Amino acid sequence: MTPHELRAWLRLSLTHGVGNDAARRLLACFGSPQAIFAQTESALLQVVTPTQVQALLQAPPELAVQCVRTEHWLSHTPSRVDHALWTLGDSRYPEALLQLADPPLMLYAQGQLDHTPGNAVAVVGSRNPTPQGAQTAEQFGEALSAAGLAVVSGLALGVDGAAHRGALRVAQAATWRTVAVVGTGLDRVYPRQHQALAAEIAQHGLLISEYPLGTPPLAANFPKRNRLIAALGLGTLVVEAALQSGSLITARLALDLGREVLAIPGSIHSPQSHGCHALIRQGAKLVETAQDVLEELQLMTPQQSHLFAKDLDDANDTDIAADNSNSAFLSHLGYAPVTLDALQARCGLDTADLQAQLLTMELQGQVARLPGGLFQRLKCE
After folding, report:
1. Is 166 found in the same domain as 52?
2. Contact indicator for 186, 108 with CB cutoff of 8 Å
3. Angle at which helices 195-204 and 159-168 pack, to 10 degrees?
4. Tell me, what's the pLDDT at 360?
5. Which residue among 278, 308, 338 closes a domain?
6. Does 185 score more than 60 pLDDT?
7. What angle separates helix 159-168 from helix 131-146, to the nearest 10 degrees?
8. Looking at the structure, do residues 5 and 154 belong to the same domain, yes or no?
9. CATH number, domain at 334?
């Protein structure tokens, strides 16, 4: 892309009041952004509204800064990481996004751009998952990546980050392990806690954004980017979600696009599971293993079947080796969050012994302490 072409694309994308739909109509009529800005006012009025025409006739005030910023970003890349700008019509523009009613005019891409896209599945969920939920998201991310799928998520705290980390555990050479769709410009990382995670994704996968460089984390941008997450996956797996969770927006968007929606059930006592339960009641696929995901997406192959011989979250699995003396205590604890008093009533230990046992198992990573004085069993390999 020449500097003149880049300037025209940026001008079109930055013009206030001209959204993706109007921009597509203009491109269909005139062929290119450069041609659009060469038109007369009367010609433009044949395609868009008078207000939009007036906006098109004036260059956005931030255009000059964005041109310099974008040219610098495209030409200065970290080691083993590529930067690119994909426009509508570009051969590298993800075909799945063209099914959207308003596909982004441009996509900023950062990462391993020479890798093969392959199939993908979206994994989303709560920003404040239970310890079990975060662990489940990481396990599913790893198993789905091992099956050859790219794990698509939003780089948010909680389930998103866990799914990305799980996918990055798997060694893949020619395909993206994970794809992060972010709600800021790609020259920013949000949340800041995920700086290292974003850098690792760029080394082994892909980060994409429809927002210009420098765009801060605006609240309105995150629900909007969810449509890209839903479109890129063959299906959307919801790990944990409250009834008002943004993950349910992603699930609805996936349904609108004809994608599969899958959900992992959880404790009836956990608010983070109520959204998943609602999805299942509405017809979402109930998922217990990564194999369930592959079967629902019709991706199961004999070569992949051995990957799931060990169930990731099988309630019949003993979790702990037979010689582990804690197995009886874990059976009393169960998988749902429980108070100290309720656990004491189940196992019959006195308070001191019970607290000592819980502390030991917490240090071993078998039990998590939750807000409100609750305890929860974690899945152990």
Report:
1. no
2. yes
3. 40
4. 80
5. 308
6. yes
7. 40
8. no
9. 1.10.10.10
* 330/362 Cα distance (integer angstroms): 12
Last residue of a domain, one of 28, 45, 65: 65
Burial string for 93-111 (b: 16+ CB within 10 Å, else e) reads: bbebbeebeebbbbbbbbb
DSSP 281-337: HTTPEE-SSHHHHHHHTT---HHHHGGGSS-SS-TTS--S-TT-TTHHHHHHH-SS-
Supply 281's token pair: 């009641």
- The H or E element that residue 278 is part of is helix 271-281
> What is the end-to-end Cα distance of the chain in Å, rounded?
50
Tokens of 358: 């819980």
Residues 304 and 359 reside in one and the same domain: no
pLDDT tens digits, 264-312? 999 888 899 999 999 999 999 999 999 999 999 998 654 443 343 344 4
Residue 34, token pair as written in the block: 């450069």
Lowest mean pLDDT among 217-226, 311-320, 368-377: 311-320
Rounded Cα distance between 373 and 375, Å, is 7
Q: What is the pLDDT of residues 163-172, one digit of tens each?
A: 999 999 987 7
Q: Residue 110: beta bridge partners?
A: 83, 207
Compute the C-alpha angle 176/181/187, nearest 5°: 100
166 and 272 co-located in one domain: yes
Domain extent, residue 198, equals 120-308
Look-up of token digits 């240090």: 363
